[in-house]
Amino acid sequence: MEKRSKMQLALQMISGYGAEFSAWRMPGTDPAAYTNMDSYVERAKLAEQGKFQMIFIAVTPVLSSNLGPQTPMFPMDPMLALMAVARETKHIGLVATLSTTFNYPYNIARQFKALDVISHGRVGWNAVTTSDPLAAANFGARVTERKERYDKAHESIQIVQALWGSWESDAWTLDVEGGKFADMDKIQPINLQGQYYASRGPLPIPPSEQGQPVIFQAGGGREGLELAGKYASGVYANPYDIASAREHRQAIRQSAVRFGRNPDDIKMFAGFMFSLASTEEEALNRRKQLMNFNPQEIPNRVSYLGSMIGVPLSVNLVDIDKPIPADLLKNAYANPRDPRSPIALKLLLQGLSVRDVLAHGVINYHPVVAGTPTQVADFLEEWFLAEACDRFSVVPDVSFDGVADFVNQVIPILQERGLFHKEYEGKTLRENMSIPYEYGMREYGINE
Ligand SMILES: Cc1cc2nc3c(=O)[nH]c(=O)nc-3n(C[C@H](O)[C@H](O)[C@H](O)COP(=O)(O)O)c2cc1C
Fold first, then answer.
1. Atom of ligand 1 nearest to the CA of 236
2. 388-408 pLDDT per residue, tens
3. CA of 135 relative to ligand 1 center, distance in Å
4. How far is the CA of 132 from the centre of ligand 1 (A)?
5. N or C: which end of the chain has fewer CB within 10 A?
6. What are the Luciferase-like domain coordinates in residue numbering (predicted)?
7. Burial of 236 by CB count in 10 Å (0-12 exposed, 13-18 middle, 19+ buried)?
């Protein structure tokens, strides 16, 4: 068993503003952070000062938000943002998502491997199948059934790995005197032909300092678990409570064992969001301020909250600054289809107003801690010691001050408690993630 004394942290950067779509209006934020690469670089440098193991950029190739009040959810281009960060940092890992459904494996292999070489071995690829119909439409396609998406993903990852290994580790000779740039006997085509994808290779890129990028995965169901177990060293997940997180982590570990791997070589990252302030009340006020920047969304949030507790709520029916009247709450129940429902119901039964309950983040994509640095550290400690996850993907509400506050106020508490490292252990992402060296494709045939 891995010694579970230290957690690891990934900083989720996404569009550059933070978790909340309205973060661009927060005083102090550069409203144009979306196109300002300095903004990514500054946040990444802060994260590096805090010894974060990596930054992570989730991406779906689609413009899905309402650009009236909201920012785009994803960056202009993740690889270009990471390239800017790579040139200005030295230690922090650089991980981005690229879809196996809508990209040729050759392009994926080339982009990630080039960045891995440029950054001296700090890169990871989050391989996802992408099931958003609007993303599919951007490629003139429709979302296909899950089996086909995952069959494609297996082919894609194997071809990408094989291309990454298409130079033997000592192929780049750089022999100036002998006039031999590289040893062509050690640079070979891969000649892989699958049902959906094929590639001849080789890639025009030598090995990086970590051999090749680290593979991550995020996705659902039995097929997602299988993909993770077979290839991934990191898995991004979105559990909402400790019990389901533990179950998911065990399932991921068992899947790795089924593919003949050591379960400690696959690390589950649980997503979590935070709003920091010196008191819980101030943190909740910060979240209410963010909510007020986007008032058009409030009616949707209120009716969604209603669906979580089996009560038809609307802004016309209730005063959102007051507790829900007892006669409306008497038949409320936690909707079993949404794991966030029990927390929402508990807060409403405690007599909090609808606005306060929403400010607690009960309908956010990940669990939310709105509170003091100690409360945030307590949450991370509890999940980590309960073996709910191996790592965290942390998402600030607003990046411009949230990253600095986390680094200056939460990291020292985690370090003091012996839960987080004080120095980078190695140079490459593999070394810093404590995962084994891999090079090229392991021994599996296409779609076996
Ligand atoms: C934690 C998590 C993170 C994800 N991140 C991304 C992402 O960055 N980009 C993307 O296109 N899809 C992302 N997905 C969605 C998957 O690609 C896939 O579309 C989704 O899991 C639904 O399909 P499936 O259940 O068949 O896997 C993510 C899914 C999960 C669970």
1. 1
2. 999 999 999 999 999 999 999
3. 12
4. 9
5. N
6. 30-291
7. buried
